[in-house]
Specification:
Blueprint lengths: L2 H11 L9 H15 L4 H10 L1 H11 L10 H12 L6 E5 L6 H12 L7 E7 L2 H8 L20 E3 L5 E3 L1 H5 L1 E5 L4 H4 L6 E6 L8 H14 E9 L14 E3 L9 E4 L45 H10 L3 H13 L5 H14 L2 H14 L4 H13 L3 H12 L4
Parallel strand pairs: 1-2, 1-6, 2-5, 6-7
Antiparallel strand pairs: 3-4, 7-9, 8-9
Helix pairs in contact: 1-2, 1-3, 2-4, 2-16, 3-4, 5-6, 11-12, 11-13, 12-13, 13-14, 13-15, 14-15, 15-16
The structure holds S-adenosylmethionine.
Length: 404
């Protein structure tokens, strides 16, 4: 057995998805770690991985990159706000696993606060297996890629950007989130049953083999309240967690919410009108009494003027992919070569199953911005889909170099 084959066997035994746990897929990642640890050659590095579980964990963290950003999959958060607003006065408890560097749980907290819930009623437990990611999250250290494509008007003051476009999380928002180091499924087993109204488990299943996915699925099912909502990543479905019998899409007419509910609970009220909050509540202490629902005398912030790119993105977020594609292609044929447009086109083509076209535009994005981790991750997914695990790993390794 070669050094890479024994590393691949260890990765497979640790539950990594089979196409990612191969010698060729792991070669660039093992090489990166070998250099980092100063091992003489791959044989020496493979012996290190064998005897040191923390090194194996460090290698696997290059496979499951802590790639994340605020307000990722906007339609999920818009739907979440409707879900929260439909349960007035009830506390809102959410789980975000994996939370990576923290922007996902903070967006969840911001969404709940923006609906008028008192901070004391909002709790988000955020778990990730990466010590570095949890440390960055706890210290609210956000990279320049923590915001992509902007934040919605309702996010302020809970989440905002500073003058240089960096993410800023309000102290009240941060206080709603507890970060915890831990790996699923073990870290979920200690949580009480039915204890969360929303469970976010986005972009983890894509990296895992069937058995760990199912073990995690069992825990997600157990900790989610009977009328709770389960949020997955764009390429994930309840069936990946063995939950296809119990769950169904929350909004079949808009699959881009990536939100699922128990079949028995689909009668949950449709999105209720969402109040806006007086700005001064932004600094209410965590123990404040329930915030009054804001009346009509607190107008929502004026929406920013919508550009053609915003229109295309909004259409894509609503799941109107053909229309989104038409708008985006029109911009592109007019000579618009902005990276955001190329990323959007890539995402739309991927959702439509036009993988070759998606790859073409995403490669253009990476040509213009070689460290564009979103495009690199998408290219990794596309390479994986066409069975090129080695290429997929190379894209992931490159993406890991420019994480959010
Ligand atoms: C791509 S990020 C997903 C972050 C976020 N949910 C999102 O979609 O934006 C994947 C994260 O999974 C974490 N991870 C990998 N295996 C895990 C496990 N078994 N339990 C918890 N976190 C894990 C990694 O450390 C990484 O931060």
């Amino acid at each position: 057995m070669t050094a890479l084959q024994s590393i691949a066997a260890l990765a497979a035994a640790a539950g990594i998805e089979p196409t990612l746990a191969t010698a060729s897929a792991l070669a660039p990642l093992a090489e990166e770690r070998r250099r980092c640890r100063g091992a003489r050659d791959l044989d020496a590095y493979s012996r290190l991985v064998e005897r040191d579980p923390t090194e194996l964990a460090a290698l696997l963290r290059l496979v499951t990159v802590p790639e994340t950003w605020a307000y990722r999959y906007p339609a999920s958060f818009e739907w979440l706000r409707g879900f929260i607003a439909a349960r007035p006065g009830r506390p809102f408890r959410a789980l975000s696993v994996p939370c990576a560097t923290g922007t996902e749980p903070l967006t969840i907290a911001a969404a709940a606060l923006s609906c008028g819930l008192a901070p004391a009623l909002v709790t988000v437990l955020a778990i990730d297996a990466s010590p570095e990611a949890i440390e960055a999250a706890t210290e609210a250290r956000f990279g320049s890629l923590a915001v992509r494509g902007g934040l919605p008007p309702w996010s302020a003051p809970w989440l905002s950007t500073d003058g240089s476009g960096r993410l800023h999380a309000d102290a009240v928002t941060c206080a709603c989130v507890e970060f915890r180091l831990g790996a699923a499924p073990e870290a979920l087993r200690v949580l009480p049953a039915a204890s969360f109204d929303a469970v976010f488990c986005r972009n983890l299943a894509i990296y895992l083999a069937d058995a760990p996915r199912r073990a995690i699925g069992e825990e997600l099912d157990r900790v989610l309240a009977p009328d709770g909502a389960l949020f997955l990543g764009h390429a994930e479905r309840p069936s990946h967690f063995g939950l296809e019998r119990g769950f169904t899409g929350s909004t079949p007419e808009d699959p881009s919410t990536f939100a699922f509910m128990r079949r028995a609970a689909r009668a949950v009220p449709e999105a209720a009108p969402i109040p806006t909050l007086p700005t001064k509540l932004a600094h209410a202490p965590r123990t404040a009494p329930p915030a009054p629902r804001a009346g009509g005398n607190h107008p929502a912030p004026a929406p920013a003027p919508r550009t053609a790119l915003d229109e295309a993105r909004a259409a894509a977020d609503r799941g109107h992919l053909a229309h989104a594609l038409e708008l985006a292609e029109r911009l592109r044929s007019g000579g618009d070569a902005r990276i955001e447009l190329l990323e959007l086109l890539g995402t739309i083509h991927m959702a439509l199953g036009n993988d070759a076209r998606a790859e073409e535009v995403l490669r253009q994005a990476v040509y213009l911005d070689p460290a564009n981790s979103e495009a690199l991750i998408q290219l990794g997914v596309l390479a994986e889909r066409r069975g090129d695990a080695a290429m997929s790993a190379r894209y992931r390794a490159r993406a890991a170099g420019g994480r959010a």
